[in-house]
């Protein structure tokens, strides 16, 4: 019953995974997604990045709705 989610990666995150667009099976939560990404792309381990779900920034672990678009955002410069 897994659904596919669209991943959009920006900046150095896209460079580390070698793509700005990915389709993955929905792991359920952002925390699980991060673990899945880190196992698939070891260069992401220890890298700080933020998630946006359907264009809304997420500050905590959140459930990923079916068919969601998840953006991987590198740290913003300028503090």
TrEMBL record:
It comes from the Bacteria. Pfam families: ThiS (PF02597). This is Molybdopterin synthase sulfur carrier subunit. The lineage of its organism: Bacteria, Pseudomonadati, Bacteroidota, Cytophagia, Cytophagales.
């Amino acid at each position: 019953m897994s659904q596919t989610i669209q991943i959009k990666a920006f900046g150095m995150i896209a460079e580390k995974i070698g793509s700005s667009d990915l389709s993955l099976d929905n792991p359920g939560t952002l925390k699980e997604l991060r673990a899945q990404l880190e196992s698939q792309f070891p260069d992401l381990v220890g890298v700080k990045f933020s998630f946006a779900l359907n264009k809304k920034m997420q500050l905590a672990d959140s459930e990923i709705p079916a068919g969601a678009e998840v953006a991987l955002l590198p740290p913003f410069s300028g503090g």
